[in-house]
Design brief:
This protein is mainly alpha-helical. The protein contains 3 helices and no strands.
Length: about 70
């Protein structure tokens, strides 16, 4: 991915922010599905992955704070 050289205090346009959040959510869902299908791989990933997978077993639940 090509990154632009911008000052650290520059605003990120909302469309870019929403696009990146959507991409992050797609990656999150991909890995959750991969770990649910391959429990041995999930166990190798450690307790943090186990914590992520626990709420994933219940449909339509997110683990976002707040």
């Amino acid at each position: 991915m090509l990154e632009m050289d911008t000052p650290s205090d520059a605003d990120i346009p909302e469309s870019i922010m929403l696009s990146r959040l959507a991409q992050a959510e797609q990656l999150r869902e991909f890995f959750i599905q991969m770990w649910l299908q391959n429990r041995a791989l999930a166990e190798q990933a450690g307790p943090k992955v186990q914590g992520i997978l626990s709420p994933a077993r219940r449909p339509a639940q997110t683990d976002f704070p707040g």
